[in-house]
Design brief:
The chain is mainly α and 98 residues long. It has one domain: Chorismate mutase (Chorismate Mutase Domain, subunit A). 76% of the residues lie in helices and 0% in strands. The protein is built from 3 helices and no strands. α1 packs across α3 and α2 packs antiparallel against α3.
């Protein structure tokens, strides 16, 4: 039977994987920003954002509720949109914040 230290260690491992995946997703957003710039498309695509939210809510099997999943992904999408806009405006990623 696992104790609290074991569960915390597992959470730390999962957090690193989540961070890796968020950065991978963010790099995709930067590349999409470059594509949108070349195609003269706007950074904001409300239809695509709605599609993403519907997709993740449909895929949700808990224990997070659908509203929580929606809030988390709204934040992820907001940060990705910011990266897209930056890549469209300056063709570079913003400096790493500390």
């Amino acid at each position: 039977m696992k104790d609290i230290a074991d569960w915390r260690k597992r959470i730390d491992e999962i957090d690193i994987e989540i961070l890796r995946l968020l950065n991978e997703r963010s790099q995709c957003a930067v590349e999409i920003g470059h594509c949108k710039q070349r195609l003269s498309l706007p950074a904001w695509s409300p239809e695509r954002e709605a599609e993403i939210l519907q997709h993740v809510v449909r895929a949700n099997c808990g224990p997070l509720g659908d509203a929580a999943v929606r809030r988390l992904f709204e934040r992820i999408i907001d940060e990705a949109r910011s990266l897209e806009r930056h890549s469209m405006n300056e063709n570079e990623m913003p400096a790493k914040e500390s």
